[in-house]
Amino acid sequence: MNLRSSVILVTAILIAAATGIVVVAQDHTHEKSASSTQAQNNIPSSSVTAGFTSQTLFQPPAERNMPDDEFGKTIKHGQEIFENTKNIAPQYVGNASNLRCSSCHLDAGRLANSAPLWAAYVSYPSYRSKNKHVNTYAERLQGCFKYSMNGKAPPLGDPVLVALESYSYWLASGAPIDPKIPGRGYPPVSHPLAGDYRRGQQVYEQHCALCHGADGAGQTDARNQANFPALWGAKSFNWGAGMSSIKNAAGFIKANMPLGLGGSLSDQEAWDVATFMDSHERPQDPRFNGSIAQTRAQHHDSADELYGVVVNGHLLGQGIVAAKPDSGGEKQ
Ligand code: HEC
Ligand code: HEC
Predict the structure, then answer these.
(1) What residue spans define the domains of the chain?
(2) Would you state the pLDDT for residue 45?
(3) Residue 312 to residue 316: CA distance in whole angstroms
(4) Which residues line the pocket of ligand 1, CB cutoff 6 A?
(5) Domain 197-315 in this protein, CATH class
């Protein structure tokens, strides 16, 4: 477990303890395989692999085995960008964003069922319906900067992309080239009932607001160490991000949230709280063409997306800009 993950987890446990919530420590170790971690810490496999059995899952190499040469430096740099995105690559992250890549790809992109980088790396080039062409891995990385980080895509060949690509390649050492590799993405979640805002609000207040804030804006400490990322509003991912689809959000939440308690919500609760989260305003989709209805028709035409839908009397998709940007003037 690196220092930053430890600080976040310990802070989370302290907050939870203070308010009587039980958090099972999730060991985000980079040094050991899941099975030896389990044996030493006596924790069930579910907490190592985000609620799913670890038996058939690929294990990326331990951090201590990073090559000790020039290539190793670039791999390490990629890991640092992934965990400390805003400080190392600020030019590509939205001004107000308080997210980092590992906000949604937990344990520095290692954790199965949290869209791990090793599974992503072996899955490209691939056709994506989102942009209707075959995407290289580098282009896929660009997408998460533009939408999830509400920032700008680094140009192809940029050292930031080269480092992230090197880190992903190294994590995938020994993995088969297989887009169906177990542990990829976020596992699908069923929903016997349609998502419900009110039920989702109750789940949110009970299980999420403690860390992510009643207003969804998260919390960042002065040294930017303990970072609870924003789930909606100006500091969060924008309307073009994968997480603004209820389906993706429910999958991530069911497997990984509350932090350290992945798998504890029912499928329906995960779907409802994802519906609640995605019923709030967030930064505009960068593909916005001047009309919410047309932007919905072109990019959000799905029952799982609330862009362009009226919720509680508010037409979603109007976008939101930070009142006081953290640095510089943010423009949409
Ligand atoms: C707000 C959450 C969020 C943040 C922050 C985020 N991502 Fe993602 N990322 C996603 C979602 C959602 C997907 C789609 C997962 C799926 O399709 O199952 C995804 C997919 C990916 C994939 C492809 C995964 C696959 O298996 O095809 C890569 C690579 C990736 N992200 C890299 C990054 C990088 C690099 C950063 C930081 C610059 C980042 N992400 C930040 C949510 C996020
Ligand atoms: C104990 C604190 C804690 C609780 C409780 C918690 N989270 Fe999180 N959550 C985090 C942290 C910390 C991260 C980012 C992980 C990282 O940076 O390593 C995160 C990340 C996320 C993300 C991806 C990043 C983003 O900003 O979009 C979503 C979505 C999310 N949580 C939703 C939820 C939901 C829904 C609940 C309630 C069911 C919940 N969380 C409960 C601490 C918590």
Answers:
(1) 197-315
(2) 36
(3) 10
(4) 85, 99, 101, 103-105, 115, 117, 119-120, 123, 140-141, 144-145, 148-149, 164, 184-186, 237, 241-243, 248
(5) mainly alpha
